Amino acid sequence: MNEQEEQLKALSEMRDLMNKSSRFLSLSGLSGVCAGIFALLGAGAAYGVMKGIFFGMPFQIQDVVTDRESSPFGKVLDAVYFSSIFNLLIIIAAAVLFLSLAFGWYFSKRKADKAKIPFWNPTAKIMLINLFIPLIAGGLFCLAMLWHGIIGLISPATLIFYGLALLNASKYTLNDIRYLGMCEIALGLIATVFIAHGLIFWTIGFGILHIIYGTVLYFKYESGK
User: Fold this and answer.
1) Is residue 108 part of a domain?
2) E strands in 27-125
3) Contact 155/201 with Cβ under 8 angstroms?
4) 19, 189 contact by CB (below 8 A)
5) Can you tell me the distance from the alpha carbon of 170 to that of 37, in angstroms, rounded to the nearest whole number?
6) Which residues contact residue 193 at a Cβ distance below 8 angstroms, ignoring those fewer than 6 apart?
7) pLDDT level of residue 212 (50, 70, 90 thresholds)
8) Is 109 contained in some domain?
9) Is the whole model's pTM more than 0.85, yes or no?
10) pLDDT of residue 62
11) pLDDT digit string (tens) for 97-141?
């Protein structure tokens, strides 16, 4: 190996070291797959609640439409009559979120241990901060819409804010997350046109897209290692 090749190798190793120190690389594709599976299960449970399969309380967004002129959004919820249903939906959403985070932590920690790299470091903290700022803002925005009885845009809003959160955090982790974020935003914007089918778009965004993304991520970075 001549001197020039040694210099190029040293520069390559230095670039890899800087990349590892400035990005959170422990994110596991299996965590995305699990999040997608939990989202599909949660969507199925939510569908059962809304159709009255579990509790005999059928609910359709068309049933809560009042005078369109009474709201600029056209879809207004009688919050008192349907509060029990929405409490169940919130519990389902919270369970999906908790399980997704728990399994995401487990698989990412396992990946970091296998690669013998620190799981929790300043880069991970910065990534989480950038991830949760849009998520918290979106969550508060959705709660405000729920408070005012406007439900048609809640599902699109969750997709859009989640996509923005992924884009915001992608600077500090794998670049592949950026593409998932853009897909979530695009799907959320489409869902604003078809607000009566919010659960379907939510299922695609948080379920199917997560499974596809997680599978691609796993075979790209983890399989065979």
Assistant:
1) no
2) none
3) yes
4) no
5) 23
6) none
7) very high
8) no
9) no
10) 43
11) 899 889 988 888 888 788 777 777 777 788 888 889 999 999 899
Please tell me the total count of domains within the chain: 1
Residue 187 counted as domain residue: yes
Please provide the size of the chain in residues.
225
Helix axes 29-50, 209-221, angle to 10 degrees: 170
Domain residue limits at 47:
31-102+119-221
What residues does 173 pair with on adjacent strands?
Answer: 24
Q: For residue 187, which of 211, 213, 157 has the smallest C-alpha distance?
A: 157
Side-chain half-sphere exposure of 24, counting CA atoms within 13 A: 24
Per-residue pLDDT of 18-50, as tens digits, reads 444 445 566 778 888 999 999 999 888 888 877
Structure tokens at 130: 């950038």
Whether residue 16 is contained in a domain is answered as: no
Mean pLDDT of the chain: 76
Cα separation of 45 and 25, whole Å?
A: 33
